[in-house]
Amino acid sequence: MRPGALTAGLLAAGLVLVGCGSSPASSGGSGKAASDPYAPYASLTGAQRTQKLLADAKSEGGVLDLYTSNTDIQDLVDGFKKAYPGVKVNAFRANSETVLQRVLQEDQAGKPQNDVVDTNDSELRSMDKQHVLTPYDGPSKAGLRPSATTFGGWTAERFNAFVVGWNTDVIPQGQPPKTFADLADPKWKGKLSLEVGDWDWYASMHTYLTDNQHMSAADVDALFKKIVANSKVTKGHTVQGELLSAGQFGVALSVYSHTIDKAAKKGAPVAWRPTVQPVILRPNGVGLMAHARHPAAALLWTDWVLSAGQQAIAKSLRIPAATTVKGYTDPIPAGTTTYNVPESAETDSAKWNAAYDALLRGVAKTG
Amino acid sequence: MAIAPAPTAPRGGEPMPDDGPAGDGAATPGRAVRLLRRLLTFQTLLVGGSVVVVGYLALVPLGYLFHDTFLSGGGFSFDAFSRAYGGDSQSGSMMLNSLWFAFGSAALALLLGTALAYVQVRTDTPFKGLFFAASLVPLIIPGILYATSWIFLGDPTIGLLNTLVFKPLFGASPINIFSVWGMIWVQGLHLAPVAFLLMVAAFRAMDPSLEESAAMSGAGRGTILWRITLPLVRPAMISGALLMFVQSLESFEVPGLLGLQNGTYVFTSRIYFVLRAYPIDYGAAGAYAIGLLAIAAAGVLLSAWLQRSSRNFQTVTGKAFRPRPVELGRARPLAGAAVIGYFLLTVVLPIAVLIYASLLKYYAVPSRKAIKTMSLNNYREVLHTPLAFTALKNSLVLGVGAATVVMLLTAIVSWVVLRTKAPGRRLLDMLAFTPIVIPGLVLGLALSFVYLRSSLPIYGTLLILLISYCTRYLPYGMRYSSAAMAQISPELEESAAVSGASWFQTFRRVVLPLMSSGFLAGWVYILVVSFRELSSTILLYSPGKEVLSVLIWEQFENGQFTTLAALGVCMVVILVLLVSVAYRLGARFGLQGDSTN
Questions:
Q1: What is the annotated signal peptide range for this record (chain A) (predicted)?
Q2: Does residue A238 belong to the interface with chain B, where contact is any CB pair within 8 Å?
Q3: Of A212 and B222, the one with more pLDDT
């Protein structure tokens, strides 16, 4: 082995790297004022629209590339396939942060690989800020709740509800928590559970208590400190849900209603009604990619998901965005206070994330 | 992979002198041609190519990491470090927790793995067949399932060990898995196979004549073990300790599930914290990774320093040897009991919990009511997952591919590091270790950044996953290869060269077969762990290119814990079958007649 070869080799590797690093034309697909691929369909409605979209989707290749963090996406894909057998759906499934990263990376390289994205509100808001989405203005919009259509570049298709859930074996009949403030009582010591990443829930609860209940910020902080002192911290909603079913703790403060409902359907001793108010609603939505390779398929999917597809969403125990879905009753009891994740949770995400982290670690206490 | 395309090279031709004097007095064109010919030999291409590939694999994510950490704010700055370590981040105390956790886990794993490997290779213990499972199963079970099954075993109120064993027998629930000791216990058991695989290879390649001489000189068994045997396998022990220590420092599965419940925060919870925020502070994440990098680099240097007198460990020499098992005599039943005990703890208990959970609709402490609801529905669901077979196929291709590529590359590169005096070889060793501290998400971002801009059709194919796995497991391959290489005396290569073998012939027919135990151990390790790699996979895979870990993630996100348990059980069965086939094949290729079970 010649001694020089090693140095030369590493140098070559370095050069390759530099070569790769210097080439990016970060122009991005987003910056270009390309023509709107959805424009030809804007004025169409009814059967005429569907037929034209279906015909064009087939001539585009009969595929739809979908990026999603919706873990119940298979129900939607199956339903869509039944409605439009001619269009094949390729679904990339990942967590919402990954979906966002993938979309942005591809956009910056000018190579978008998907037509539609289906994920959580904060990620969709970020994409919208980067101008990678085109607002949906099709006929299905008319059937949605007003709160589903206020987001600009994307449209809510379903809501996740953060609720307080409990194990009915550990918490005796008639003794579940009644109000959020109850949970500060020392009798709950060691019986509560918080999830380490739920800062958006924390931001919503905090804002609700100050803005709607008119508590002072200091009182809210004190309340949360007492609740944290009663709590065990878990990581991941799935583990939290499973440990709740198994009775490792009695109450989970920020679980999804559908997690509890699914477990209860299987017979697990868990419940979330009568509700501890408020129920926090977080929209999840669908967005059309501005530079879709299959725009007709993308519109066909979105039309369907926001109308007939709402039934599949209701069936997987989520809360649909449509005002009426046949044969469906809202899992949230009438008269329950609901509260949407506030805008400030998104704009000040770094602040809330840090505050929740400090709260759980008890750093806020000593300060 | 881009291993030297070598049509122009004289394949296995004349022996290649390492540092022949340059042709003197010849005309310049002739000299240039000769120099070129010499540079284009198969050896140079192969070795140079491997070094370049390894350097490239390691530098891409590292470059991305450094760029984000120091240059993200426009100009060069250390801001990311003050954001990461300053304020009320408590990074100091978290680092102490991390070091304590990592040190404890690595020590426990090293102790268990070494003891087990010694008993397996060097003694006539009963139940040798169990070692195979004990060495693999904890490795196969994804960390999240392993830790959760230990929660179901060791929780103070619902843990089965407490409710079924200690409570009825002693009236107390002494086991609390939510403590630093519990974390060390679970992580140590989960890591012990890393040490076991390394140490088995090391003990197999050990010349027992040194022990025999010690015995002749009157040394007792304990003295021999402590003064002769263990020092001889030091390269493997150091490699193992280093790998396990750094891996524990950067893992968050066990600390996340067991540590948070009692308020024990570790360093990686900081990385988790910055990566979950939006916009992600990649600078701060990079600053944390660089903190870990400093520790890892110090570890590599320390291990090189500890192995500085390389001759001391070279037990595979020109003399024939055959490791002879120590007869345990009266201690044999004791050893047997210990083996069974270990097997129970690391394999039977967690797997039993998983199997139990996989038969339920939701996890519940065993009761008549729970047992009544048992069914095979979860397994049916796994089999009916639309992508199950695509994912299994892709995982197999990637696992076998990554294991083979990494072990071949690192065999060559560890030869460069240990056998040559090439300048920069230490740096190369360190460089090949860096991927271990790069967060998976950052690796994924680095690779998608590069290959989205490359004209080669790599993005969106399985190839990008292969590149990612090769990068991620490079450090493991390096440790396994160099531990094996350190035991081989160069005199064997020298005699091959003297007998006229080319470098490639020597490497292929002398070096590789001699290090085959270590090679196979590393291969098995990479194959198995690549089945559960998720953090970079999830960003890089594409529809139709799903792998098993993506399916596991999906079940996990969807709250289907019991289905996940069923999937875990299936994975254990598949990989155990697969690896036993690999061992069969490996036994044919490697040292003949050393397969003791």
A1: 1-25
A2: yes
A3: A212
